[in-house]
Amino acid sequence: MSGPPPGRYLKPSARRVKIQTGFPQPELLDLPWSTPLAEWPDDVLVAYPRGISRHVVRFAQVGDRVLAAKETTARNAAREYDLLRRLRQLGTPCVVPVAVVTERHSRDGEELPAVLLTEHLNFSLPYRVLFSEHPDANIADKLVDALALLLVQLHLAGFYWGDVSLSNTLFLRDAGRFAAYLVDAETGELHPQLTKGQRSYDLELARTNVAGELMDLLAGFHDDSHEGPPLDPSMTTGEKAHYEPAAATTALTQIVSSAPVPVDPFITSERIVETYQKLWAELTGAERFPHEQRWRVAERIKRLNDLGFDVEEASLDTDDDGYVQLVPRVVEPGHHSRQLHNITGMNARENQARRILTDIAQFGRALYPGLPDDLTGALWMQEVYSKIMSAVPADLRTKREPAEIVHEVLEHRWFLSERLRQDVPTSQAVEDYVESQLRSRPDEQVML
Q1: In what residue span(s) does the DUF4032 domain sit (predicted)?
Q2: Which of 2, 174, 273, 421 is the most buried (most CB within 10 A)?
């Protein structure tokens, strides 16, 4: 028995459309492709904040995922999709490309622009959201530091961006700092290796664009001061803490409300140049030293590890004068993230991992001296991580990622211990953190 004519029972949104995707998902066919993106109905869209873009951009719920949809030309969509896939394969921080949708037509037969679909980065923050309360130079500095690191990673991979800016970047919290992810690769080019001129042009674009974006932000800013709920200094402890948590990092200043430092767009934009140049020199620069100072090889590797990089390949050349020249050839980001995952199975960004590894080390020295790292990590997961996460109400876990919650609880515990001049157990630190800090914060996973 022959079936119905092709297309007879298809929804109108699925007619005359071509979807190229590496993630076949039938729900993609249900999106209203015959409607211009700017006119998509509310029941399809998700109310996420959109950054500044030259294109029409919307967020849509597709199955259990939220996808960012951007209208552009078919050529640009296919090109950007391919670039993002190649960048992902190289391990660079960028959004996940999902599909290219072409051959769209309205119900009247009018041709519509192609659409590039990318996966929304969970818990990500557009830079403007981070200034929603006040323009703070400390936040601006952390943003440009993250952007500088991203640019270094992209350049090491041979990617020329061509439109470096805060607007084309998404940020995720990373233990009091931020991690930056590339969002828009439309103007980018991937090469085996970038020239100094290409890198310099990207860096100058970054300096100019960051200054302009911050000036625009300040010009339209209305100061709505906000003070978070105070910490409870009267909290009493009822049990003896089992180990002293690692000392707080500079993120501690974010726990206590303080007057914001004014943002200077020009000083901040110069910072990205300085940070980039220091990172690039450390990661790629040649180091020459006498043969007797071979310890400098291990010292250089340690400095790179401290920056979050592993050395996958390096050259060691000697000359007739008895000198050695060391040049890192291949460096791989994610040193601390890999180390944490190896001993706990936990996924975290680099600074989160660094912070948690410090706590695991102190936990092990205090309670299980001499135990192998993997066993110490497993015990820390049971005795610290699990207890922290189980004490956080389920409806509040959309406010921060698990690794960030753990980091903030450890910071909070250290701060309370300092204020009360006594060791505060984790259970009470979590309780105070939930009520005085986490509960009042927005749900960054769902609605920024």
Answers
A1: 278-437
A2: 174
